[in-house]
Amino acid sequence: MRKLSYLLILLGIAVIAAPMLMEWQADREQQRLLAEVEQARAQRDAAEMNRELAAGLERVSHLLEEESSAADSAPAASSQLMTVDGKTPVATIEIAAIDVKLPVLAGATKANMKHAAAHMTETVPLGAEGNAAIAAHRARTKGRLFNRLNEVEIGDKIVVSTESERYTYEVYKISVVEPTEVSVLKPNGKDKILTLITCDPLINPTHRLIVQAKME
């Protein structure tokens, strides 16, 4: 009789627990499916970002490999946030160590890079968390554009000023890479990074000189 009582109790518990177990299993499956969807979305977003960065870097590389004579002969642009060729710079960039101060235009185009630095709009806004890239010709005239970028050293300061903000970065990495090396444009998930891009070597360039700095 006692065994029958225990059996009935266990059966009652099973009847009560079965729906709860089924619901728990359904919740787990739901979470698994949601995780798969989020992972697939993240992979698509990452792939799209890589495509955009690669396309932007390819365009910049072609522009940087063009003759720098136009950049050498063009009149010097104002380093202040004033109109440059009918366009208003989004910022100025200053590297005291090499005595450079340039206007920064939005978009790495042939016109913008004629005698100014250009923010690659495929990357994050200047001053934002992530990796913001600025490209400029390494003009052959000493001191023009990024001509002296190869003289920058680890620890040097780079100041980017917009109309309302002033960002100070410290150089932490200098490298020479292949023109298609898109990894230099990727964020590390925690820092505010500024990446400067120009040609290397100065004459008949085959690679890209990359200077990277973190916001202090």
Automatic annotation (TrEMBL):
<dbReference type="InterPro" id="IPR023365">
    <property type="entry name" value="Sortase_dom-sf"/>
</dbReference>
<dbReference type="InterPro" id="IPR042000">
    <property type="entry name" value="Sortase_D_2"/>
</dbReference>
<feature type="active site" description="Acyl-thioester intermediate">
    <location>
        <position position="199"/>
    </location>
</feature>
<feature type="active site" description="Proton donor/acceptor">
    <location>
        <position position="137"/>
    </location>
</feature>
<protein>
    <submittedName>
        <fullName>Class D sortase</fullName>
    </submittedName>
</protein>
<dbReference type="InterPro" id="IPR005754">
    <property type="entry name" value="Sortase"/>
</dbReference>
<dbReference type="GO" id="GO:0016787">
    <property type="term" value="F:hydrolase activity"/>
</dbReference>
<dbReference type="Pfam" id="PF04203">
    <property type="entry name" value="Sortase"/>
</dbReference>
<keyword id="KW-0378">Hydrolase</keyword>
